[in-house]
């Protein structure tokens, strides 16, 4: 079967032939022109209906959102902006509409707010905007696999149900088969996990990194790409409770190799989209431009969406140490005048997204890689630097997003790692298997985590992370 995209891109082969296409009605103008879309492309196929040749009942039932099978002749189009159209000879209505109910859905052709569209996430796929967003999301995912495949990485699946808390942050959803009305407890009143997941306390993974490291210790270069869960009750436009994370891990890499990898990787994926998602990006670019017009002058983006993507791949990312960044922030007008919600007081402060965005959007006007963070604000597994104060961590910060990637060179020395775990109250016994990687041929190694949705936000120019994942899971929504 031919998709509408196939037809529109390669119509010369079938010009003046009869073909059959399938799709949903986006609009039916003057009882004569159907805009038909099958999801394969942002562009609709114009189907011309010659009234006299059709049963009145069929014409009557060609409503917005109905699904059709259409056979007709491909002809060159006279209309502006389209190459071909289909002169319909036979139309079959596959599924018509419950017209009354349609009125209250987002399929009703008018402008709906993103909030309203979110309430009907199951129907969003039919809209131009979400068609474009999810095609781009698919392209991003595909490009990610392609990049790693071309660079001899192996795709590893790490567990979704796990006993490990990689971040030590306690932001985990427990996994249980307890009868919630009758949770077994011991004499002290504590939950008795021996009666739960085959005798173990388990949770949904917050990161596949620790398991990924063990795989890299045998396979050299690996990456994970899987669902990740964080019970963070943060209602921001950048956080989801369920998101997809990509985590490469590479044996024999140090921090600088890791930063090089992150930069090369991000640029590859963005370039892939520029080359392979032209129509969708042009559509999103226009939408982005329209959206800018509704904002106060000061808040408007300086460049268009496509322009922004082109600029990001063209230049080398700025590489800045945490210490330098803190100096810049401390000396900034914004900090001195109390413009930040969380003013920076001294070296050692954790950076909030307002600070990250200041560095990227105002100060450097470029993506920024920050490295060598204070050890106290980063996880236990990061390599301790010689100064004994910082770790070999790196975050990639993007305009409009803030942190898009977080990574580090890992602590490869068993004694230093154990010391760090003790200081940070990470249970050595629970991670006995992880410590093994430092016992038998430990090597320097490094990796990072990229949140798929944050990259899709960046590429599509959308502003709320709920609008780049088909079914968002947030504290306020787990409806579908
Ligand atoms: P943030 O500071 O934004 O909360 P993080 O430092 O907690 O992020 P990491 O643990 O470093 O996140 O995870 C690696 C990457 O996963 C992040 O750089 C980000 O792209 C993504 N990510 C983290 N938490 C979320 C979330 N709740 N929803 C979507 N993506 C996330
Ligand atoms: Mg976080
Ligand atoms: Mg962070
Ligand atoms: Mg991070």
Automatic annotation (TrEMBL):
All copies of domain Aminoacyl-transfer RNA synthetases class-II family profile, residue ranges: 134-470
GO MF annotation, one: ATP binding
Entry similarity comment: Belongs to the class-II aminoacyl-tRNA synthetase family.
Gene3D superfamilies from the UniProt entry: Bira Bifunctional Protein, Domain 2, Nucleic acid-binding proteins
Protein name from the UniProt record: Asparagine--tRNA ligase
Keywords: Aminoacyl-tRNA synthetase, ATP-binding, Cytoplasm, Ligase, Nucleotide-binding, Protein biosynthesis
Principal EC category: ligase
Record's GO cellular component terms: cytoplasm
Record gene name: asnS
E.C. number: 6.1.1.22
Location(s), subcellular: Cytoplasm
UniProt xrefs under PROSITE patterns: AA_TRNA_LIGASE_II (PS50862)
Self-association and partners: Homodimer.
GO biological process, one term: asparaginyl-tRNA aminoacylation
Annotated InterPro entries: Aa-tRNA-synt_II (IPR004364), aa-tRNA-synth_II (IPR006195), aa-tRNA-synth_II/BPL/LPL (IPR045864), Asn-tRNA-ligase (IPR004522), Asp/Asn-tRNA-synth_IIb (IPR002312), NA-bd_OB-fold (IPR012340), NA-bd_OB_tRNA (IPR004365)
CDD domains: AsxRS_core, EcAsnRS_like_N
Catalysed reactions, semicolon-separated: tRNA(Asn) + L-asparagine + ATP = L-asparaginyl-tRNA(Asn) + AMP + diphosphate + H(+)
Keyword Transcription regulation applies: no
